[in-house]
């Protein structure tokens, strides 16, 4: 199974260097730019996510393959030499269908990881930097197990695992380029349909008006359709509503899990402990003596 992300790493490194140089030679007081320790932590988290994700990929492949082989009513693996030569329109139709299905799956994956705390404990890693640059895109979770259910429907529809993973890689490569302050708004038709740096800056904002907005991957139309879109207005304040203030990769990766466990242990009722798992970040049990929001 080819991981396109691996082949994109040289390009990622090049764009990080170019962006960092741009801040040095053309600084902007309204942009945060880079901070060495923060960037190093983001790069460490990115490298760690690839190491952890490698064996987990085989588990995902096995689950998706089983669903595809034994449960899918259709076989959409049309990318064969014979099919390509005989029916290129079928290829285009399947590819467009895969693109839309993957992007919709990403929207609900992303929204779920902001609205359910046990999932947020994994995703919070990506939002833990108070800077917004290309290294922020690489600040990824070390607990990728929470992604599997959201793409399982694609295998059940009939998309083979190799196509699912390829499209996931394409989406993540596109999203890398959203993590920059150096690109202002793009032309209006693009901003209306596509996810852009402006839209994604909003998503990384801890401002009240920006919380839980703009979940899209490549397309922003899902946010417009499901009522989670917010245009960029006031200056974005990056990070969390309660920042973790650490560069330790282990604490970045697992700190929210530890906080979740403390909150669950601190309540005297099993029902409330379970509600900590499934309710949004910031929810507190009625008898809680403290107020906390990630």
Automatic annotation (TrEMBL):
The keyword Cytoplasm appears for this protein: no
Record's bilayer topology term: Multi-pass membrane protein
Gene Ontology MF terms in the entry: glyceryl-ether monooxygenase activity; iron ion binding
Fatty acid hydroxylase domain span: 96-228
Keywords: Lipid metabolism, Membrane, Oxidoreductase, Transmembrane, Transmembrane helix
This protein's GO CC annotations: endomembrane system; membrane
InterPro entries for the chain: Fatty_acid_hydroxylase, Sterol_desaturase/TMEM195
The keyword Protein biosynthesis is annotated on this UniProt entry: no
Gene Ontology biological process: lipid biosynthetic process; membrane lipid metabolic process
Top-level taxon in the UniProt lineage: Bacteria
Compartmental location: Endomembrane system
Transmembrane annotation, as ranges: 54-76, 88-109, 150-178
Signal peptide (from-to): none
Protein name: Sterol desaturase/sphingolipid hydroxylase (Fatty acid hydroxylase superfamily)
Organism encoding this protein: Stackebrandtia endophytica
């Amino acid at each position: 199974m080819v991981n396109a992300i691996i082949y994109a790493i040289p390009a990622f490194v090049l764009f990080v260097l170019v962006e960092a140089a741009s801040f040095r030679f053309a600084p902007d007081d309204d942009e945060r730019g880079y901070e060495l320790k923060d960037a190093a932590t983001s790069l460490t988290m990115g490298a760690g996510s690839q190491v952890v994700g490698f064996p987990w990929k085989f588990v995902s492949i096995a689950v998706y393959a089983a669903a595809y082989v034994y449960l899918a009513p259709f076989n959409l693996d049309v990318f064969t030499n014979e099919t390509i030569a005989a029916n290129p329109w079928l290829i285009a139709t399947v590819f467009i269908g895969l693109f839309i299905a993957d992007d919709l799956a990403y929207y609900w994956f992303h929204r779920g990881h902001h609205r359910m705390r046990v999932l947020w404990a994994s995703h919070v890693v990506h939002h833990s930097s108070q800077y917004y640059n290309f290294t922020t895109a690489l600040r990824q979770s070390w607990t990728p197990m929470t992604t599997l259910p959201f793409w399982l429907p694609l295998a059940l529809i009939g998309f083979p695992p190799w196509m699912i993973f390829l499209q996931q890689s394409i989406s993540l490569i596109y999203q890398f380029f959203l993590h920059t302050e150096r690109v202002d708004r793009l032309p209006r038709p693009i901003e209306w349909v596509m996810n852009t740096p402006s839209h994604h800056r909003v998503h990384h904002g801890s401002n009240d008006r920006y919380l839980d907005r703009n979940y899209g991957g490549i397309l922003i139309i899902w946010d417009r359709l499901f009522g989670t879109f917010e245009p960029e207005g006031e200056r974005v304040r990056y990070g969390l509503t309660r920042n973790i203030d650490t560069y330790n990769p282990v604490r970045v990766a697992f700190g929210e899990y530890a906080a979740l466990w403390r909150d669950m242990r601190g309540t005297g009722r099993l029902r409330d402990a379970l509600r900590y798992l499934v309710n949004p970040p910031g929810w507190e049990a009625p008898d809680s003596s403290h107020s906390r929001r990630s």
